[in-house]
Specification:
This protein has about 270 residues and is an alpha/beta fold. It folds into two domains: about 200 residues, 2-enoyl-CoA Hydratase, Chain A, domain 1, CATH 3.90.226; about 70 residues, Lyase 2-enoyl-coa Hydratase, Chain  A, domain 2. The protein contains ten helices and nine strands. The strands form two sheets. Strands 1-2-3-4-6-9 form a six-stranded mixed beta sheet, sandwiched between helices. Strands 5-7-8 form a three-stranded mixed beta sheet. A hairpin with a 2-residue loop joins strand 1 and strand 2. Helix 8 runs antiparallel to helix 9. The chain is globular, with a radius of gyration of 20 Å. The chain starts with 5 loop residues before the first strand and ends in a 20-residue tail after the last helix. GO terms for molecular function: catalytic activity.
Length: about 270
């Protein structure tokens, strides 16, 4: 068994990051967060990566904070001072410009569930157990859970899940819109990879970056501000190499060949 806290495997433009503490069911710790965020940053900076998949080793995604670490906090009354060594903010996954897919292969609670909410797409095995958990641990909603959950499933449902901290399943999560699709366990990772490869091969990285920015900014802007921002982006896109490639590949009925992120896909004009 590898001692690496977060494994990385690359397949056809997809980086698969696996939380790797199976002996603790991938429970969240400060070192795990540091390594996970560093791995994400590496994927952002790697032009060959066009889509990122997050999953857990074994049959659990992440049950939340490691209870051994929580017990230390009950004695000190303070967070782990090693948190100061993490360069990225808690919400760093929300800033990643590439598509992120949470492959929920088992239970996810607390910090673990919030990490899935920071992803763009959530695919899950049926009947895995989920929980916000914070209210049952004497904690407020952490890691932006109170910001994310209402925007994903609506204020009423989010309130109930946060204040109750009850356990619910991925089957219920799919019904209320928190999970996008359920996939049976035997085919789970193969189906996740098929979906991720499709994004990596057929979607413009620059377009995805713009869309993610628009979604994030749109929730905090007025309608007219959103329209004006979209028009500004559209004017730049119409003269871009990615727009030219997107249209011509469709007309010519061939796979697109979009520029890697950072090479000006929506800013660069076609030759």
């Amino acid at each position: 068994m590898s001692d690496e806290l977060v494994l990385r495997d690359d397949v056809d433009g997809v980086a698969i990051l696996t939380l790797n503490r199976p002996h603790r069911r991938n429970a969240w710790t400060v070192p795990l967060q540091r390594r996970y965020y560093d791995r994400l940053q590496q994927c952002v900076e790697d032009a060959s990566v066009r889509c990122i998949v997050i999953t857990g080793a074994g049959s659990t995604f992440c049950p939340g904070a490691d209870t051994e670490e929580l017990q230390v906090y009950t004695q000190t009354g303070e967070f782990n001072p090693e948190m100061a060594d993490i360069e990225q903010p808690d919400w760093y996954p929300m800033t990643v410009p590439k598509p992120m897919i949470a492959a929920i292969n088992g239970a996810a609670a607390g910090f673990g569930l919030v990490q899935t909410m920071m992803c763009d797409v959530r695919l899950a095995v049926p009947d895995a157990r989920l929980s916000t958990a914070f209210a049952r641990r004497g904690l407020p909603a952490l890691h932006a859970a109170s910001y994310l959950l209402p925007r994903l499933i609506g204020a009423s449902r989010a309130t109930e899940l946060l204040v109750s901290g009850r356990t619910f399943t991925t089957t219920e999560a799919e019904r209320i819109g928190l999970v996008h699709r359920l996939i049976a366990a035997p085919e789970f990772m193969a189906e996740v990879l098929t979906y991720a490869r499709d994004l990596a091969l057929n979607c413009s990285p620059a377009s995805v970056q713009h869309i993610k920015q628009q979604l994030r900014q749109g929730s905090e802007s007025s309608f007219l501000e959103v329209v004006a921002d979209a028009e500004r982006r559209e004017h730049a896109a119409l003269a871009s190499v990615d727009f030219h490639e997107g249209v011509m590949s469709f007309v010519e009925r061939r796979p697109p060949s979009f520029a890697p992120l950072g090479e000006g896909g929506l800013a660069r004009q076609p030759d």
